[in-house]
Amino acid sequence: MLNTAIIGLGWWGKTHVNAIHGKSDKVKIRRVVDMAPDKVRDFVSERNLELSTRFEDALADPGVDAVVLVTPHSQHTDQIVAAAAAGKHAFSEKPFALNAGEARRAVAAAKKAGIRLGLGHNQRFNPTVVEMKRMVDSGEIGTVMHFEGNLSHDELIDVTSWRYDPVEAPGNGLWHMGSHFLDLYAWILGPVKEVYAQAVDRVLERDSAQALLQFECGATGYIGNSTYTARSRTLTLYGSNGWAKMLSPTELEVCMRGGGASEIRTFEPVDIVRANMENFADAIAGRTEYRFTTDQMIHDIEALDAIAKSLREHRPVQVGE
After folding, report:
1. Predicted TM-score of the model (pTM)
2. Rg of the chain's alpha carbons, rounded to an integer?
3. Which helix or strand (DSSP H or E) is residue 1 part of?
């Protein structure tokens, strides 16, 4: 059993608790930490969890094996370094860091301390995405031509939050939601080579943002996001043999070249937040490989760095430039 401390009990921190608490035989939440205890006291009390206000409390707790960082992006690196120094594994929500230099610093600290790093890009556990990756790896989809998706919602409109801070998220929703697809594309297709991004103000600041991508393998990609619309998620993979379109987390429409009708492939539902944490726990216990490598974690941030530079300079930017 991996005993964890959830650091930050806002919107997504509560999602972690609801996905894990009393539902997993591999991960247990031992305590939660939040700087505004009065706002979360009832939530914590109902679940009989221990609440404190200091990150250091989790690091000093001998019963905590790993910290789960659901904190502002700018805090992740220092918190990972502190966790490593305390001998605690660290699972960070995405983005992993604010820039590639900070990402490398976190990875170096973890490697030196011998602790495991986890990452909250839970979409890698979506069964339709896993099937898309299988179709690419097996050659079923043929040569990949293009990957495109949009992950939008309005769930943060009325939230006063660091999430709107341009330092924490230069491209607003591209950081909070679109980065999921950036990670997925790179997981399935390999490293991103070049990006071209834009973000505009329609109702709120930077509430419409898009990125065009080119991958080292030669394929292209698109990510779109709006933070002021109804919830919407689209994801389509185009290959030389046909295409695969996510209809829902459990349904994938596949159409192959040749004029035949498309087919719907269905999958059992998966709680992707819990699946990610349980994969992390299994990796720590030596039962399996973790689905993320530290090189991939760093590359995600290198690609986001390029997107941020493209937003500032209004031009295509090479990753690592």
Report:
1. 0.94
2. 20
3. none
